[in-house]
Design goal:
This protein has ten helices and 15 strands. By secondary structure, it is an alpha/beta fold. It has a single domain, classed as Metallo-beta-lactamase, Chain A (4-Layer Sandwich), CATH 3.60.15.10. It has an eight-stranded mixed β-sheet. Bound molecules: zinc ion (ZN) (2 copies). One zinc ion (ZN) binds next to helix 1. One zinc ion binds next to helix 1.
C-alpha cells in the first residue's frame, strides 16, 4: 500500500458546507493540496464525501474517498492517484483521457497497480493504447483492466458490492451502482439465545441473509433511458448524473439521440426520484457556471429543488 494515501479524506472533507472549488478554498481545516492541477468540487452527504468535476467535452472525474473508489478518468487531480479502484463509464476523451496518466503516476509513486473497470467492448483497445503509451513514454503501464457488462456484480469488500447497468450513449457505455450489504439474522431465528445461533451457524445453517442498500448510482453520459432502465438508479441515496443541456431552445430528440439529457427530462420525472441527493453535472461549455446555478434552481419543482445539487 502507498505510504501516504491521498484517498484518505482526512480533514479535507467539508461536511455540511456548500460545494467549494479547491483553488478557491480558504478553509483553515483544509490541508493545502501540494499540486492543484485540476479543479475539484467537494461536498458530503450521509457519511460519504463526493469529490469531482464534470463539464461536457472538457473533463469528468469523481471519487468517494470513504469507499476508495472513483468514477471516470477524464483528468486526474494529483491527489486522486491514491484511490486504487476506478469505474470508467465510456471511452470518450472527456471521461478517459487521463487513464494512462493515472496508471503511470501510480507506478512512479510506487503504489500498487490499480484496478480499472470499463465496458467490456473497449478493453482490448485500451490495452493497446497503454502499450503504445508505454513505448512512447518508456515507462511500464501496470494495471488490472476488467471488462464489465450490464448485469455484472463486482465484490469490493465484505460491506460493499457494485452492479453494472446499461446506459444509452453514442459509444459502448455502462453505469454503476455501489451497494452497502449487511448480513442480518433471518426472522425465524430472532429471539434465540446467542449460543444456539452460534451452534446453528457452526453446523452449516445459513442463519443470516444479505440485505443491500444502494448508496451511490453513477450514470456517466446517457440519454434518459439510462435512468429509466434500472430502478436502483432512482433509489440510491446519492445519484450522480448528467444534465448536459438546460435552455429550452435545444431540441430534445437531438439531445437524446446524442446520448445526453436536458433539464426538462428531470422535471418530467420529478416523482420518480427517491434519492436523498441528485448531483447534476456535465453541463455544456456554452453555459456559464452562474447561469447554470441560477437557471436550474429556478426551474426545478419544489420536490426536487432541495435535493438537486447543481455541480458546476
Ligand atoms: Zn462526456
Ligand atoms: Zn460521452
Amino acid at each position: 500500500m502507498p505510504k501516504a494515501d491521498p484517498s484518505d479524506p482526512g480533514d479535507r472533507a467539508q461536511f455540511g458546507r456548500p460545494p467549494t472549488r479547491s483553488a478557491e478554498s480558504k478553509s483553515s481545516t483544509e490541508r493545502p493540496r501540494p499540486v492543484d492541477n485540476a479543479p475539484v468540487v467537494r461536498r458530503a452527504h450521509g457519511g460519504l464525501t463526493i469529490e469531482g468535476y464534470s463539464r461536457a467535452a472538457v473533463q469528468t472525474y469523481w471519487r468517494i474517498p470513504e469507499l476508495k473508489i472513483g468514477f471516470d478518468l477524464g483528468a486526474q487531480p494529483w491527489d486522486f492517484m491514491g484511490t486504487p479502484t476506478w469505474f470508467v463509464t465510456h471511452p470518450h476523451l472527456d471521461h478517459m483521457a487521463a487513464l494512462p496518466v493515472y496508471v503511470a503516476r501510480r507506478r512512479m509513486m510506487r503504489m500498487e497497480p490499480p484496478t480499472i473497470y470499463l465496458p467490456a467492448a473497449v478493453v482490448e483497445d485500451v490495452r493497446r493504447l497503454l502499450l503504445i503509451m508505454q513505448r512512447l513514454d518508456r515507462g511500464r503501464m501496470v494495471c488490472h483492466l476488467k471488462g464489465v457488462s450490464p448485469g455484472d456484480e463486482i465484490d469490493l469488500s465484505r460491506e460493499h458490492v457494485a452492479t453494472v447497468f446499461a446506459t444509452a450513449h453514442t459509444v459502448p457505455s455502462v453505469g454503476f451502482v455501489i451497494w452497502e450489504r449487511r448480513h442480518k439474522l433471518k426472522l425465524e431465528y430472532h429471539g434465540l439465545p446467542g449460543d444456539r445461533i452460534r451452534d446453528l451457524r457452526l453446523s452449516g445453517v445459513a442463519v443470516t441473509s444479505e440485505v443491500r442498500t444502494p448508496l451511490v448510482a453513477y450514470t456517466g453520459d446517457t440519454s434518459p433511458a439510462g435512468l429509466d432502465g434500472y430502478p436502483p438508479v432512482y433509489q440510491a441515496k446519492i445519484l450522480i448524473t448528467e444534465m448536459s443541456f438546460i435552455r429550452p431552445n435545444h431540441r430534445r430528440e437531438k439531445i437524446h439521440k446524442f446520448g445526453h439529457m436536458h433539464l426538462d427530462d428531470f422535471i418530467e420525472r420529478a416523482d420518480r426520484f427517491h434519492n436523498e441527493v441528485i448531483i447534476c453535472a456535465h453541463y455544456s461549455t456554452r453555459y456559464h457556471s452562474q447561469e447554470v446555478q441560477r437557471y436550474v434552481v429556478s426551474r426545478l419543482p419544489p420536490t426536487l429543488r432541495h435535493r438537486v445539487w447543481v455541480w458546476v
